[in-house]
């Protein structure tokens, strides 16, 4: 089999991931999922560090790089260093300085989250798919009722969207799973579902999106990676990722995307 040409840009890299993700064996799929969720780490990490993060041996990670068309890890890393050279080293340097100067004091921790939030917002501004956002707004503005679901880390985003829709007199239902009571049967023809989920992804949210798509309803997905299971359902996908502080991710960019989406839907409905 002829080896594919290496992706020439980060966008091509993400498209290649989408194309091959479902065909990969378990270990290589772990590499794909980890890379899709942590593209910011590729430019700065060693192959051993990335392999450990994906839970595989470095040799498996090297095979993954070659499957994408690269000669090896160094070639893949070069692509990301060229693309993010001005941003990610600066982020690492800033956080290293914060840690060395302030230790783990509350003020230093706050500064880390502020810096991570700023970079998350910058990333959103530079990567948002305007066409996907326009299509999502159009679908939601035309919906008789909007159904919103997001669990765990996505729950604050779901509740905020429901609150915003309520304040704008837009019919909506929050599927919160309280009491294990499902509300999927409330989805009627023409209704649109907003499904919000981030790795490791909540099965209940995915199940609701699958249910809606099987019945011909449109779904707007707010998710984090090109390999997200929500993207495979033929949805209006809005990608947003957050820079982490340790193992914690705030919601700075995600909530900004959510409020923009809600306000745009409200304005479009009012103009009609």
Automatic annotation (TrEMBL):
<protein>
    <submittedName>
        <fullName>DNA-binding MurR/RpiR family transcriptional regulator</fullName>
    </submittedName>
</protein>
<dbReference type="InterPro" id="IPR047640">
    <property type="entry name" value="RpiR-like"/>
</dbReference>
<dbReference type="InterPro" id="IPR000281">
    <property type="entry name" value="HTH_RpiR"/>
</dbReference>
<dbReference type="GO" id="GO:1901135">
    <property type="term" value="P:carbohydrate derivative metabolic process"/>
</dbReference>
<dbReference type="InterPro" id="IPR001347">
    <property type="entry name" value="SIS_dom"/>
</dbReference>
<keyword id="KW-0805">Transcription regulation</keyword>
<dbReference type="Pfam" id="PF01418">
    <property type="entry name" value="HTH_6"/>
</dbReference>
<dbReference type="Pfam" id="PF01380">
    <property type="entry name" value="SIS"/>
</dbReference>
<dbReference type="InterPro" id="IPR046348">
    <property type="entry name" value="SIS_dom_sf"/>
</dbReference>
<dbReference type="InterPro" id="IPR009057">
    <property type="entry name" value="Homeodomain-like_sf"/>
</dbReference>
<keyword id="KW-0238">DNA-binding</keyword>
<feature type="domain" description="SIS">
    <location>
        <begin position="136"/>
        <end position="272"/>
    </location>
</feature>
<dbReference type="InterPro" id="IPR036388">
    <property type="entry name" value="WH-like_DNA-bd_sf"/>
</dbReference>
<dbReference type="GO" id="GO:0003677">
    <property type="term" value="F:DNA binding"/>
</dbReference>
<dbReference type="GO" id="GO:0097367">
    <property type="term" value="F:carbohydrate derivative binding"/>
</dbReference>
<keyword id="KW-0804">Transcription</keyword>
<feature type="domain" description="HTH rpiR-type">
    <location>
        <begin position="11"/>
        <end position="87"/>
    </location>
</feature>
<dbReference type="GO" id="GO:0003700">
    <property type="term" value="F:DNA-binding transcription factor activity"/>
</dbReference>
<dbReference type="InterPro" id="IPR035472">
    <property type="entry name" value="RpiR-like_SIS"/>
</dbReference>
